Amino acid sequence: MQKTIIVYSSVDGHTKEICQKIASQLEHQVDIVSVDDNPMIEDYDRIIIGASIRYGKYRESLFDFIDKNKNTIDTKKNAFFSVNVVARKKEKNKPETNPYVSKFLKNTNWIPKKIGVFAGKIDYPKYKLLDKYAIKFIMRITKGPTDTSKTYEFTDWDMVIEFARNI
User: Fold this and answer.
1) What is the second-level CATH architecture of the domain 3-120+155-165?
2) Model pTM score
């Protein structure tokens, strides 16, 4: 039986929710593990890595994990997906057009066999004060939502399901 591991890097938990949706579409054993738990990936047939953006950057632990495990990742079926609010814009919601996916590919020596990009979520009520107003400032500049009393989910779940089915 095939075994898949989904390794994720998330700040607020939305990337993990996307991982769970992907796992629900796969018809075999799937383990979902945070990159911060330093998962062992050798015994898996498929490796999917998902990561979110905060303030324009992926977390350093993502790059450390990939660098440490690149040889193993390259020998398996693999995929990468990025979760970022910029992808809420149609012109930036594809791997070829998303600036964070391009940046990721430049900053790592890994070339994933499959790449996806999904719009994320802004959960103003959940954020600490500094994050709330920093994100509001970024949203104002990028013509996004700025009402800090609300949560805005931009994820196209059909795109997530399609990604999972095509892995």
Assistant:
1) 3-Layer(aba) Sandwich (3.40)
2) 0.93
